[in-house]
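Example 3.2
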Amino acid sequence: MRPLLRAQAIAPTLVAAVALGVFWRTAYPTITWWDSSNYSLAATTLGLTSSPGSLLLTLLGWVTTRLPIPLAQAHILNLLAGALGALASALMVVVAVRIHRVISTPVAGSNAALVSGAGIGAMAFAFSATVWEYAIKFTPYVLTVVFTAAILLTLVRWWEDADRPDSWRWIVLLAFLFGLDFSVHRTNALLMPGALAWMLIRRPRTLAEPRSWSGAVAGMAVGLSFQMLVMPVSSITTSPLNMWQPDTWTRFWDYVALAQSGGSFQLELWPRKSPFWSNQVADVLRVFVANFAHRTSSMGIAGWLPALAGISGMVIMWRRSPRFALAFSILWVTQISATVLYFNIPANYFRSLDRHYLPTLATFAVAVALGAGTAVQTVAAMWKRRPVLALAGAAIVLFLPFVQAIGNWKANDASHRYFTRDFAVNALETLPPGAFYFTVGDNDTFPVMYVQAVERVRPDVRIINLSLANTDWYIDQMRARDPSFPVEGTSDERRAANASIWRDSSLVVRLTSTEDTGTRSTMPHLDSLVFRPVPSVGNQPLPADDVLLDIVREAAFTTPVTVAMTAGSSGLSWLRPYARVDGLHWRVVPARNPLPDPSVLRANLLDRNEYRGYPDSAVVLDDVTRTMGFLYLGAFQTLMEAENANGNVAGCQAIRARVLALLPPSRLATATAAYPRFDSICAS
């Protein structure tokens, strides 16, 4: 095999192998916060997540978890994410080499060096902060990067063949990729304006040729039609995750149009939700710097090498083919501009949008690979004439992936991060038998749903998300899975039935339970309890308010009602006077302002809970993990205060010592949240 062909085969394979090894070594062993739990649950149970749903990713994950691999299913899915990240990195080599072929006259004997250098540049992309972050957990974002690379490769191949009569086939493929990606995450749709400019610069009349535009329409239609599979999946799934239940044409359209998020495909270009330059553009620049120019990297100034390689790649394009460079630059700048305009992020947004910028990083990474490849090609050419200079240049280029790997390893080594699974299991295992468990958001809902549905942790608990309880389809699904679920009718029917209760702010619940909640022996015998329900938001009750009211009334303390601590005391609303802290949840008990039960708290917090990773300084804590850690601290504080109030000062001090060991102050104290002053609680 000739050196060039051998290098073209070996380099992408080697890049994929090295990236795969690193991603698998640092992958999460289980679920993590946000989308990881959501998509892992969908893949293992063949369910549907919020639109656009990433059905392709779900199907890939579902098939993968059916393979005979002796690992936890969430771990298998995280390894699949690593494989997709490795594939995207390998494709970067192929794209960079094709671009070099377009813009350069081949030089005998030096192209093998080019391919090898492009591989080095691609590994620098693989080990960049954001790619690595999403290549170690199962989410749609790394699959999006695979599509970005495939789209860029298709554009370059069309550029090569644009003057051939059959070049329209590349346009069909391009349109198909755009259409198929529409169901993955849609971020690559922001490449479309740049792709049109690309064709206009290379061969304008292409867009007027019937075969080109009709082929594009057909390719797009075929790609888009893949998303129609959500209808049969929604119809047959038994998963607890069947978001918006798009099993009819009306609900399917609402699903693809993002009706649950406001509709119109979330296209809100104006007014801007925060300052355009100082916040929205600056946020994209922040992510580029974090990935290609480590200002705070332990590697010092060497952290800027990936950015310099990318700038070098852009310069090379302009020097060798201004026309191609113009097309590539417009493609990239248009992509970034469309990204900023489309996402229109508010100031101080609750969650970073780094994941949505991945396609723009991938486009720049092609220039990084081209710059590194050309550098190695130049070094190889001067080896005999100036060996010392060539050796120095080779060392700098070879250092590129090491700069990224060393600078980002600690932040992305998730191999010992069990925080999310531990939180979910802790939350479920400490609930009373058969409890109703109310949650409010993503991070207190999807992890517990995952461990319950996939790992069969506490299947007796009924998890109810109060945000989703505002929809009829969600309540219908709850009833379908559990015929004894005590909520009947539609939201309008429930509103009518409860109208007098909301008007009078009076809910009478008969006390028929003989269950010991830790309060019955300390209170006089009562036949009933009067709650004063008020709407959770504003003056008019939401559908979820009626759901909560119905369950409290029907449970009548025969079935435990619990609320996740993540709701906050304000989230308890009218239940707050009857809520008792039992760990990571409040339990509604038939007593006003109930005292905590130290025996229950001690058993839940110290005997049943796990706190893996919190005491280990080698394991990095992200912001969500720190926030959840403070929930543990709040429950411990309640226990310590209860022990101290009972005169058990020694027990209080012993618990304080355990807390400081399990959840060290150095690990949880932040600039915005101070560690509680436990030393003042245990007073003699």
